[in-house]
Design brief:
The protein has two domains: 197 residues, Bacterial polysaccharide co-polymerase-like (2-Layer Sandwich); 126 residues. Helices cover 69% and strands 8% of the residues. The protein has a four-stranded antiparallel β-sheet. Strand 2 and strand 3 form a beta hairpin. Helix 5 crosses helix 8 and helix 9 packs antiparallel against helix 11. The radius of gyration is 46 Å and the shape is rod-shaped. The chain starts with a helix and ends with a helix.
């Protein structure tokens, strides 16, 4: 107590504690203007996350507590503090006029005609958006010298933010649908092209199904080979009992010769040669074209399903701004909180004075 009593009369105490505290008293008691606060809590949700259109803001909060649309909500927070939002408020509410010319409060004084950079800094002092990581809510707070104006600013911010969220949601949906529809068009063009190639191939080679024709021709050759083996066996049996010049033997030889010629002719049609153009080559080309057409058809089906799925997903993921706590007109000013700030200022000055005194004493001890 003796130390404090002596310190009161010391110039250092007067300069470090008394004078700043007196200046603080003058500011908070005579210069500081009352500032009213309007607050709103919002969150961005997908339509699939909201229980029903009739559910209130608090119900939406309870439902979406575990899966907030964090990225979209943070995007809204950045937009609220941007120059675009400031320009929108200026155009709708003449934001600058409310704060300009308040000379009595030097800490909340916006000079008339200040550059836009300074206005934006001042704007971010009186308009604050804080994101809560626990609840996923965005807390919007506006300070103004009039309670009704503070509420108007919050309402305007909410309306403009909702427009931006809707535009963002529609743009994402349009981009997704445009991509899916472009893939569908490409798949359709590929399908039409492969089908045209298949039809042209069929017309050129006079085969409806070259692969089936080749299979049928193979079955004919197999049948001819079977008959040829059978006839040769009969001829061998006849030669064992009859003269080679016998009519039955000559008839059988003639039958075998006809089968061999028919077999050679059918084989030439089926088997490929270096020049190509045989049925097996045509069947192979036809098979490749048919596989390409089937693949194009499956791709087209998948593209159609993708378009429908994208359309359904875009409806499910429509984003909307949910207002959990609506802004209200404040009945009393929250700031500047003179008593709290003066007490805090006094404690801070005393601690600073004690530190300075300790440093001075330490220096004197070292000098001695």
């Amino acid at each position: 107590m003796k130390f404090i009593g002596r310190a009161i009369f010391r110039p250092l105490f007067i300069c470090l504690v008394v004078v700043p505290f007196f200046a603080g008293c003058i500011y908070f008691c005579f210069l500081a203007r009352d500032r009213y606060v309007s607050i709103s809590h919002v969150v961005v949700r997908h339509s699939s996350e909201i229980q029903s259109p009739q559910a209130g803001g608090f119900a939406a909060l309870l439902h979406g507590m575990t899966s907030p649309s964090r990225e979209e909500t943070l995007y809204v927070r950045e937009f609220i503090g941007s120059l675009d939002m400031l320009n929108a408020l200026q155009a709708e509410l003449n934001f600058r006029q409310h704060y300009e010319g308040r000379f009595s409060d030097p800490f909340f004084w916006l000079p008339a005609g200040a550059p836009i950079e300074d206005v934006l800094k001042f704007y971010n002092r009186v308009v604050k958006a804080h994101f809560d990581d626990v609840t996923g809510l965005l807390r919007i707070e506006v300070q103004a010298f009039d309670s009704a104006f503070a509420q108007q600013v919050v309402n305007s911010i909410l309306r403009r933010s909702e427009i931006v969220v809707n535009e963002l949601s529609q743009k994402i949906a349009r981009d997704q649908m445009a991509f899916a529809e472009a893939e569908l068009r490409d798949a359709r063009e590929r399908l039409d092209a492969t089908q045209r190639e298949l039809l042209e191939f069929q017309s050129k080679n006079n085969y409806l199904d070259a692969q089936a024709s080749a299979t049928s021709r193979g079955e004919v050759i197999a049948t001819l080979e079977g008959e040829l083996v059978k006839e040769r066996a009969i001829l061998k049996d006849l030669l064992s009992t009859l003269n080679p010049a016998a009519p039955q033997v000559r008839q059988k030889r003639s039958r075998i010769g006809a089968l061999e010629q028919q077999l050679i002719a059918e084989s030439k049609k089926l088997l490929s040669t270096p020049e190509g153009g045989q049925l097996n080559v045509v069947a192979s080309d036809y098979k490749n074209l048919k596989l390409s057409a089937e693949f194009a058809l499956e791709s087209y089906k998948l593209a159609v399903m993708s378009v429908e799925r994208t359309r359904v997903d875009s409806v499910k993921k429509v984003r909307s701004l949910v207002v959990v706590l609506k802004p209200a007109v404040a009945e009393s000013a929250i700031y500047p909180r003179a008593a709290y700030n003066l007490l805090t200022l006094m404690l801070g000055l005393l601690m600073f004075y004690a530190i300075v005194r300790f440093l001075i004493a330490s220096v004197k001890d070292h000098q001695d």
